[in-house]
Amino acid sequence: MTVLDVANLTKIYGDACGECVDNTGPSVGDNQCPVCGSVVACADVDFQLHDGEVLGIVGESGSGKSSLAEMLALDLDATAGDARYHAYDGNMLSADYQARHELQNQHVGMVHQHVQDGLELSFSGGGNVAEKLLAAGWRHYGDIRDRVESLFRETEVPVSRMDDATETYSGGMQRRIQIAKAIANDPGLVVLDEPTTGLDVSVQARVLDMFRGLQREQDVATIVVSHDLDVIRLLADRTLVMRHGRVIETGLTDRIMEDPHHEYTQTLINSVI
Amino acid sequence: MTDGRSVVPDAESVDDLLDGVADDGLAGYNYAYLDEHTKREVRRATLKAIALPGHQVPFASREMPLARGWGTGGIQTSLSLLGPEDAFKVIDQGSDESVNAANIRRLASRTADVETTTDATDASVIQTRHRIPEEVLDDDQILVLQVPITDPLRRVDGSDDANRRRHAHKNYSKMWVALYENVVEYGEIKLSSRYPVLVDDRYLMDPSPIPRWDVPKLDDADNLCLFAAGREARIYAVPPHTEVEPLAFKDRQFQVERFPDQACANCGSEDTFLTEVETDDGDRRYACNDTSFCEKRRANPDLSKAHHRDGNDHAWGPATDPSVPDGPTENSEGGERE
């Protein structure tokens, strides 16, 4: 089953002159329009995401990965495009505030690159996770506590730290709390934006391992955005390679890693290995 | 009215000047102090507030002869309602005799020519700060509450802009998280005043700093409640017979203040909201906060809170009133904390 069907997704920052998309991209070698100066974060992105599938989005800094992730998590308005989510009737990118909130609460979980975008640092870790449940209408304190506790266990955060302020947590714990929050309401889609950036290597491995376990167990469709090819290799079934705001290559992750077709992808893979 | 200019040449001191206008009173002012346009504007905001229970309606909020934050919203609302037939009562934290209450009452009686009273059952308009009377209000009475902070969400987010958007979409999850954390910390919801309530299952409302004791009185009341904030220039309302539900969890219920084994030192009441007072000797004792009802109880200790309504047909306030059999239930789980 197709969980998400995205067509023609475009984000332009600035007052677009109408020819921005034609004036930018890999063929030009830039993502800033020479006519009006607008930045084309991403343009004409098409892909489908299937049940239980993990889609990796990889690219250098400024290639439009995060804009793409935020638009799909409905945190950022798209300039143009069409995204069909299986449990929503219509283009979810043009959903009104109310519908968007319902989608974010019930269907789309997001793990932000910056902790302060995803968590209220003055709230306790448990409170941050509970917010999702409360927003979805949970009103029984005991049930909420139980659910938060089991989410802490699943994401391997010490339950004893549940009631401490989130700002006292380590970076790895904050990342796990974000994951716990993202999966709290059993969403159909999870978007991870740079899930391991800023964590040391051993913590990275454990966060990824934990998430891979959860993802398989719950069979949730996932989009992972990362500049780190190892993260993509570990998590993603299929991969999009982005550059200058365009998708330049798509394919099974194994194929991309072993037999990259596009010149840029080849450089990318080689520079890592 | 004395022509002010003619007084000045003869005056030798400020006292002389004041003597010169002593008999003028408030002659020359419009009826009920405010001009008719202002009153009409306040009434319009009031009507809109009644039409949208719990929604904060902006109004112009004029300069008043006392500082904003001292009841200017309440005064403007009261004065726009009062007519010569009305009886006006002003309460300041349960007391009719505080300076502010007495002055507001005097302003109304001088400018609006209304009768004033301290008896809650006689008044047609009651302006109050931080209390709702113990005696049950009727459908022909209007309660005007003075409000310092209009938005309950400001507890959790300082941005009024973001909060207005939350109200528009009934998105109150942040307030719920604050309550959740409150229970985590204390085992029960411990908010002493300004307890957030959901009005008519739609708008989250700050009931003004009334104690939790008074919050149940707002639910399905016979009377109209108006909330007015002069500093913030907002009016909101709970119309009669509107559902007002304090936010609480299914297993952590809303609770009123408890006064275990205490009775009013003056009248002996055990079913009223008590405050701890320190006597001149340094002793501490509990006394009724609502002084006018306390006086009635002193004369008649068995007086029901609904004595003027034949004593039966009401449900007002916490279950401690013996004449209310089924009030909000006390929750035993948090009972170990006092």
UniProtKB/TrEMBL annotation, chain A:
MF annotations from Gene Ontology: ATP binding; ATP hydrolysis activity
Top-level taxon: Archaea
Domain ABC transporter: 4-269
Gene3D superfamilies noted in UniProt: P-loop containing nucleotide triphosphate hydrolases
Entry annotated with the keyword Cell membrane: no
GO biological process, one term: organic phosphonate catabolic process
PROSITE patterns per record: ABC_TRANSPORTER_1, ABC_TRANSPORTER_2
Coiled coil (residue ranges): none
The entry's keywords: ATP-binding, Nucleotide-binding
SUPFAM superfamilies: P-loop containing nucleoside triphosphate hydrolases
PANTHER family associated with the record: PHOSPHONATES UTILIZATION ATP-BINDING PROTEIN PHNK-RELATED
Protein known as: ATP-binding cassette domain-containing protein
Organism: Halorientalis pallida
Automatic annotation (TrEMBL), chain B:
MF term (GO), any: 4 iron, 4 sulfur cluster binding
Annotated InterPro entries: PhnJ (IPR010306)
Keyword field: Lyase
Listed GO biological process terms: organic phosphonate catabolic process
Location of the region described as Disordered in the Swiss-Prot/TrEMBL record: 299-338
Name of the featured protein: Carbon-phosphorus lyase
Record organism: Halorientalis pallida
